[in-house]
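Ticket reopened. Same input as before:
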Amino acid sequence: MEANRGRARWRCRRSLLELDLVLARFLETGFEHLDDEQVADFEDLLRCDDYDLWAMINGGKACETGRWQEIVARLRQC
Amino acid sequence: MSVNVSKRTFDAVIVGAGGAGLRAALQLSEAGLKTAVLSKVFPTRSHTVAAQGGVAASLGNSTEDHWHWHMYDTVKGSDWLGDQDAIEFMVRKANEVVIELEHYGMPFDRTDNGKIYQRPFGGHSMNYGKAPVMRSCAAADRTGHAMLHALYQRNVRANTQFFVEWMALDLLRDAGGNVLGVIALELETGEVSIFHTRATVFATGGAGRIFYSSTNAFTNTGDGLGMAARAGIPLEDLEFWQFHPTGVAGAGVLITEGVRGEGGMLRNADGERFMERYAPNLKDLASRDVVSRSMVTEINEGRGCGPDKDHVMLDITHLSPEVIMKRLPGIREISIRFAGVDPIKAPIPVVPTAHYQMGGIPTNYKGQVVAPKGDNPNTPVPGFYAAGECACASVHGANRLGTNSLLDLLVFGKSAGESVVEDFKTGNLALHPLPADAADQALARLARLESQREGNAVADVRLAMQRTMQKHAGVFRFNDLLKEGVTRILEVAESAKATYIKDKSKVWNTARQEALELDNQIEVAKAAMISAEARKESRGAHVRDDAPNTDEHPNGRDDQNWLKHTLWFSADNHLEYKPVNLKPMSDDVEPIALAKRTY
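Engineering reply: fixed in the latest deploy. New output:
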């Protein structure tokens, strides 16, 4: 499971600085508190296209996938 | 870390899967070469995605245009440091690579009659500077994103073999200087593998993260430059970095020029709209370099804002909330998130921010890496090619024009690929045997990190490097600060030899990744600082306080002594210089004669 967390951490490396910054804040503040199932959901969210992910985080686009909504809400606070 | 090193054999390995890497890969795969592409991140998360503006090509769809004019603009933009053979090659190839991209499915904006729509962009002109020209081909404000997706899909079709989440550690060379491939680490398994090849193409992007304030994504750590430098290849013209005037202080995220276009004003700690003093006519809308230097002068003279007096303010509070909400919603969001201020109520803290690296691994216009050998400063290094921001062809010289970076990666990605295919067909690419010690350097770096039980935190060394670069080799440069900067960056480089990571795990070890990346960043930082200290003139993006604008040296440029490319060598930090090629590739165009760069 530690490996999965490491993988998720690495996949926070994105093409856009805005996302790098938000995800880095999340890694420092919220990530450690995720349980294994939430880590899996987070990794799934990280598969999104970068502009779509940014739009979800900055509120330009609604997050329509139920299991991502809690994490997206947390990312919006980062 | 005890590791067994596996070996894989390919015709070619490409390191980096941004625009240049994918374009090169396509050329090789479609020619039937067995090609491996290594990428630290999934290809469509490469930083090419962030390029918004467009790609320059003199298609002439929206206004009259000619490659001669594009060449003139690029040479002038480069402040005559660009090589005119490479620039001619690039601008003449532009139409071809853009139309190819269109055929790959790139969703360019269209004119009413269905042609690729073109928009104007700063620095691009018709008839040798007479009027703005519409030369930029764009896909809304997502040009890089659309380009990368089109190239990735095309590579999938061509059966390019991707090694995703692999980090190249070092370049492999034999005693004769032949390049034999790379040694790389798979993040998922911790496997270390030699990619033994006939051809190696670096397309690893820029290293803008060596500065404290950078618009670059975290992944831009100059890995190709670090690997090349450690393997004895010089780095060219790394004193030249393009800064954007308005990055959010402390974060780097860009605030577009459009904000000042809407009426935004820069203010110092006294609340003064200081650009009125520096550029009485254009004020806040003066060119990027003028605005950036004015901001730094305010900060250096003690009129910066905040507790550390290290930034200025971009003020749009005089605009109505409706205008801000309607025309600048994304900027408001960025300001709230990254500066903690709502620009409707308070000004945004901003600083000049590193944006693009003009220098890099020296290449010719064929994408072959070149280095001095005997009397020839441009001798191809057998088996080694490079393209994109990591390479220096040199088309951007001392300053890059907007929309020429996406063009660079398409043209030189393709050109490097064509050169590999050509060299392969003509039998010029042998699979040279691997020396017994091929893996030693990379394994020693890994072993040091494994065995180091105490030392310097990677984040601390990185921060020291970034602060040093920002303070001593920023947008406006001073002799005493540069001299101190050289001493300081060499101290930081020493401390980087003793980085320590607590986490010794084998797989998905991001701490180890960052330590390995820091080794590469340090190489670039040394090259940049030492090259900048040595160049005693102002040219393009390299502006020194002690090389001002005079009649003898317009804009501080000294062609008599400094019309030459810098080459920095890692082994002993020495510099060499080589001439700028002022002669175009063909007789179809006259050389662009030296002149003062004014707009």
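Chain A has a mean pLDDT of 93. Residues 2-77 of chain A form a domain with the DNA polymerase; domain 1 fold (CATH 1.10.150.250). Please confirm and we'll close it.
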